Amino acid sequence: MPYADPRKGVENSKRWNAEHPEQCAEAQRRYRDAGHKKKHELKKRYGLTVDQFNWMLVEQGGKCAICEKDISKRPCVDHSHITGKVRRLLCCYCNVRLEAIENPGWLEAAQKYLNDHA
Q1: For residue 33, what pLDDT is reported?
Q2: Would 111 be classed as within a structural domain?
Q3: 48 assigned to some structural domain
Q4: pLDDT tens digit string along 7-24?
Q5: Residue 30 exposed, middle or buried by CB count within 10 Å (0-12, 13-18, 19+)
Q6: pLDDT digits over 37-79, tens only?
Q7: Number of structural domains, the chain?
Q8: Are residues 53 and 40 in contact, defined by beta-carbon separation less than 8 angstroms?
């Protein structure tokens, strides 16, 4: 039964979690292991299902679309920050660098920084 005051439910939940850390940790582990977090994040951030994500990984042969290193353990979803369109799966190294390149002015600022602090 929900509480009339939602803060009461939050307080009770926090208290229970503090009093039962092992059970709380086990429940969180089961949730993560079942792939619920991954499923939720893929849908929320990129509009992808787990099946679509897995298909992309297989279709790319488990390799980064830029440097072709193995990404089977930790692939990153590359997407346009302007349109939200998903492009391909990348290694995290390439994904971070691509984001920097897409940011207008960043490359010039980085070059100036390197020149000023050589």
Answers
A1: 59
A2: yes
A3: yes
A4: 766 787 788 878 888 877
A5: exposed
A6: 677 788 888 999 889 999 999 999 999 999 999 998 889 999 9
A7: 1
A8: no
Measure CA 107 to chain center: 24
Residue 71's Cβ-count burial label (10 Å; 0-12, 13-18, 19+) is buried
Q: What is the CATH number of the domain that holds 91?
A: 3.40.1800.10
> What residues contact 85, with CB distance under 8 A and at least 6 apart?
79
Amino acid letter, residue 70: D
Instruction: State the Cα–Cα distance between residues 42 and 40, nearest whole angstrom.
Output: 6
Chain CA centroid to CA 9, Å: 29
Give the structural domain span for 74: 35-116
Q: Give the integer Cα–Cα distance in Å for 114 and 69.
A: 28
